[in-house]
Amino acid sequence: MSFFVDSFTSAFRLIWTLDPELLTIVRVSLSVSCTATVCAALVGVPTGFIVAYGRLPGKRAIITLLNTLLALPTVVIGLLVYTFISRRGIFGHLDLLYTQKAMIIGQFILIVPLIAALTVAAVSRVDERYRNTAKTLGANAWQTALVVLREGRFGIAAAVISAFGRVISEIGIAMMLGGNIKGFTRTMTTAMALEYDKGAFTLAVALGMVLMVLSLGMNIVFNLIQGKALR
Amino acid sequence: MLYHLTGIRQRFNDRTVLLIDHLEIEAGRIHALLGPNGAGKTTLLRLLAFLDAPTDGLLQFSGRDVGYSRAELLHLRRQVVLVDQHPIMFTTTVAGNVEFGLKVRNIPKPARRRAIDEALETVGLFRYKQAPAKELSGGETQRLALARALALKPAVLLCDEPTASVDIENQAIIAALLQQINTDHGTTILFTTHDRVQAASLAQRTLILENGRPVPTSHENRYTCTLVTDTNGTIHYNLHGRVSLSVYADTTIHPATTTGQVYIDPEKITLSRHEVQQASGSQVIGTIVLIMAESGKIRIVVHVGVVMVVLMDRTAYERQRPAVGETVALHFTANAITLLEQNDQRP
């Protein structure tokens, strides 16, 4: 019991004193995950919107593919990207392996299908009458599409938040493509795994608490958005 | 003529839902489109609102053939607004909803503000201007949908069952609004309804659709019947188990037929105030529940156990002057009653 209490007390102290190592790890995690989420949103939201809104041939097949990609394990993505960016890979000359860029690429691949699939679901749920109403009120094709996008905005925001939650807590890609280099590619999850391996729990518990606070923050935002959507 | 429809056919999944050989809709008037559910009323409105293109046929608007290119559709749609039966409001304020159509037309902000205020004043929703539109009641939502259309000053206002899902108070408000919009702005209004009284009181012209086709009058005297043979061997139509009518000798009935549908032509029923005797095979007794004027005829609704409509010409009506609540006799001529085949939709 005293081990448990000691670990938590020390972890709290690290957070309270704003330990530089802890802050660096949190900063790297947030920077990589935020960049990956923004980039994935820029691709995933329009993709999902076009799939849901447009009259595309093979629409059902595309949705099935997106849903299948949701189940892709992070280590598979890590391995796939590794084969491309390792020294022997076709992008080996770019020297991306064990950099934050490599982690961003991996995380981007992980969550683009997630954002796209959830955007498809959000846009498909938008009542068909919005499209007709916009048209009959004189909106052109772009303005009509924007109306549908606007009405699906809460669902789309929830998709992006879910995607951020997915990447901030993943470990496979961060470990395989980032390499867990201290001060450079060490993220909260890779640092926790390392500290656990070393049997030093203080930093791991502190990072765990930060992760939980971030998760709580995201859920609060998520609920606020959902609440607004229901009103 | 504002709209001119020739040979219009609309098909969905190999099923023809609308078939109009010829229809004209005059500008500046209020038109009612009457018909039962599934008659094709909404399909026709969507064609007239340029939201759908017909499968076949020619639609002309203001004397010109309607083309379905994006640019032309946008130009046409900006002259016509369709108000849905269950209008949906954008997730914004009441004012934001009215502003939408003005914004997409690039109307400058001061003019937009004026138009919003004016439209909301007209429909009596000005005090809710900044309220979230989704918090309005059903009747208020319908009025907001009218304001959203009204702010755009369209040449044509199409309303799908504008009073079907609102309370009595809002029904009267909406009917008065439609009248006002037509009078003040000369807007052509076409609304769909099931309600003959509303159609007759509000519209200058009533169009009737049945099974996707325009008909001169609605076949409302249509009843499910059982064929009953009495002790004398005479066959009767028993309408909903409440009214018995003789089958005329020249009616061909398949020996196996036990049930069917009959249609009684409202123009071939004679109404009499003075010869009210016992009900017999060719006469039924009932009470008048409604009298209204309609397209040069007088529509008299009589409750005889089932509701039966009689169409009288004005001279006959003037001569007899029947009154609501009065007991009358209805006589049927030999060709007034038609036995419809099961599943046959037309007499």
Layout: helices, strands, pairs:
The complex is a heterodimer of chains A (231) and B (347).
Chain A: H1 2-16, H2 20-53, H3 59-69, H4 74-85, H5 100-124, H6 128-136, H7 141-151, H8 153-168, H9 172-178, H10 188-198, H11 201-230
Chain B: E1 3-12, E2 15-25, E3 30-34, H1 41-48, E4 56-61, E5 64-65, H2 70-77, E6 80-83, H3 94-104, H4 109-123, H5 138-150, E7 156-159, H6 168-185, E8 188-193, H7 196-202, E9 205-210, E10 213-215, E11 222-229, E12 235-239, E13 243-246, E14 259-264, E15 269-272, E16 283-294, E17 297-303, E18 307-313, H8 314-320, E19 327-332, E20 337-340
Parallel strand pairs in B: 3-8, 3-9, 6-7, 7-8
Antiparallel strand pairs in B: 1-2, 1-4, 4-5, 9-10, 11-12, 11-14, 12-13, 14-20, 15-19, 16-17, 16-19, 17-18
Helix pairs in contact in B: 3-4, 3-5, 4-5, 5-6
User: Helicity range of the residues of chain B?
Assistant: 25-40%
CATH domain class of chain A: Mainly Alpha
Largest interface, counted by CB within 8 Å of the partner chain's CB:
A-B, 18 and 24 residues
Question: What string gives the helices and strands of chain B in order?
Answer: EEEHEEHEHHHEHEHEEEEEEEEEEHEE
Structurally, how many domains make up the residues of chain A?
1
The major β-sheet of chain B equals:
6 strands, mixed
Structural class of chain A: mainly alpha
Give the termini distance of chain B in whole angstroms: 32 Å
